[in-house]
Each structure stands twice: as structure tokens, then as C-alpha cells.
What does this fold into?
Amino acid sequence: MLHTRGNYQDFFGVGAMKITVADVEYVARLARLELTAGEKEQFAGQMDAILGYVEKLKEVNTDGVVPTSHAVPMENAFRADEVRPSIGLHNALANAPDRSGSFFAVPKVIE
It folds into this structure.
């Protein structure tokens, strides 16, 4: 369900907007997105609400909480690094759609 900026402000207690439509336009341009005027307004409100929520989280007392703690005990699932033989060139290129000698051949993407 999509929320309007007003609903976010009421829920999170967000005051004046920090994210402007110009900020949304800048991010959209970087992401090469075309947005309607309504979407720009909507995303400005949503992004501002997210920042407002982060501000509220800063009020939480985190003294004594380890930054990487988890709700349940966890063990490191990584294996130890050890030198092993590679799969070899033939196996690495076995499913390649096209190859050029000992390399993957790919279509040219820059004219």
C-alpha cells in the first residue's frame, strides 16, 4: 500500500521535509528514471519519512550493544582459505556460448 507524505509524517513524527522534489529529480536523473510529478512528490515524502525514521532510531539507547550482534546466536559459516586446484580452462569454458582461444567471446557493446 502506498502512503502519502502526510501519513508518513503523522506515523513517524517527521516535521519539515528534508528531501525536496529537486533531490528526487537529481536521484532519478542519476538512475535514469522518468518520474511523473505525482511520483516525484510521493517519493520525496517517502524518502523524507525514511530519514525521519532514521532520526528516531538515533534516540534509541544502544549502550552495550555490539554493532554486529544478532537476535539469535550465530557462528561464522565461512570455510578456511586453502589452496586447491582450479577447475581448468576446458571446464571453465565448457558452457561458453562463444570463445576465442582461451577466453570468453562477448559481443562488442561500445561502438
About this structure: Confidence is low (pLDDT under 50) at residues 1-6. The first helix runs from residue 5 to 12. The beta strands are 99-100, 103-104.
